[in-house]
């Protein structure tokens, strides 16, 4: 989730391992309403034949980090928005692998795969952006979308851009910042369930460079600070690490990631 290129604020050291945590808050973004998105061609695992959907009645919001048009519109994404304890840019451009596979495309693909699996299990699923060619929405707007839907769980999908020597994934949980105080504990349960399922389902290790045992807590991400429903971020791997990048660039492995995330969300909601 570290960012680079035009129209971004660069991370300043390891302490900001997920630089702005790609949020996507809103404002006047063209993607400020929940999206019904196109599902990737790879078939999701879904619900096994003969098994009743287990998430019927649950509302899940998936937040694919960044957006494909962000870099071309610094006037939109650099606008400051209030995140509960200060101001940050509306959104960021994200990172990429050394071969040029961008985070925004990765998060969009995984989000759609995850949505397909969850819908097959009976859940109502909304995405915070409609496509991978738009701008934003701002991180605050992304939180507002989930709040307005009274989501049972929110998963914000990202990829990190840390030093190439670091590898692995981590889940970011909220610290209490005003209005989100009531969702800190349930978000912690969601984070732990997602961590356990992702580690088991993908075989990827917890990050070697941030957090502890695959979990981190932060108070500087608007998507978490402004949430009134259980919400976490997942940094699916480090795009600057060759091994992680190879996995994230594989469609088959992205399906594995989505299946694992669906298991984690299901474990939290059941």
TrEMBL record:
Annotated MurNAc-LAA domain residues: 143-266
GO molecular function, one term: N-acetylmuramoyl-L-alanine amidase activity
Matches recorded under InterPro entries: MurNAc-LAA_cat, N-acetylmuramoyl_amidase_3
Bias (Low complexity) ranges: 28-45
Signal peptide: 1-17
Gene Ontology biological process terms from the UniProt entry: peptidoglycan catabolic process
Region span, Disordered: 22-56
One Gene Ontology term, aspect cellular component: outer membrane-bounded periplasmic space
Alphabetical UniProt keywords: Hydrolase, Signal
Highest taxon, organism lineage: Bacteria
Protein name: N-acetylmuramoyl-L-alanine amidase
Protein source organism: Actinomadura decatromicini
């Amino acid at each position: 989730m570290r960012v680079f290129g035009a129209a971004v604020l660069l991370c300043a050291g390891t302490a900001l391992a997920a630089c702005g945590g790609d949020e996507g808050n809103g404002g006047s973004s063209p993607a400020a309403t929940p999206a019904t998105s196109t599902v990737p061609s790879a078939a999701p695992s879904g619900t096994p034949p003969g098994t009743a959907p287990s998430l019927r009645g649950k509302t899940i919001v998936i937040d694919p980090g960044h957006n494909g048009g962000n870099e071309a519109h610094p006037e939109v994404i650099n606008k400051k928005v209030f995140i509960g304890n200060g101001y940050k840019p509306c959104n960021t451009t994200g990172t990429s692998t050394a071969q040029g596979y961008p985070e925004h495309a990765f998060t969009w693909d995984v989000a759609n795969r995850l949505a397909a699996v969850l819908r097959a299990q009976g859940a109502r699923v909304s995405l915070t952006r409609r496509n991978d060619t738009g701008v934003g929405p701002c991180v605050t707007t992304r939180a507002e979308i989930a709040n307005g839907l009274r989501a049972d769980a929110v998963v914000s999908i990202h990829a990190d851009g840390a030093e190439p020597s670091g590898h692995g994934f981590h889940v970011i949980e909220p610290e209490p910042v005003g209005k989100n105080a009531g969702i800190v504990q349930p978000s912690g349960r969601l984070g732990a369930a997602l961590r356990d399922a992702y580690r088991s389902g993908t075989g990827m290790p917890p990050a070697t460079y941030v957090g502890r045992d695959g979990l981190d807590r932060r108070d500087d991400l608007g998507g978490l600070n402004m949430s009134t429903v259980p919400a976490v971020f997942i940094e699916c791997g480090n795009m600057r690490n060759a091994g992680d990048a190879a996995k994230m660039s594989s469609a088959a492995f992205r399906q594995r990631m989505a299946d694992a995330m669906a298991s984690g969300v299901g474990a939290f909601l059941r």
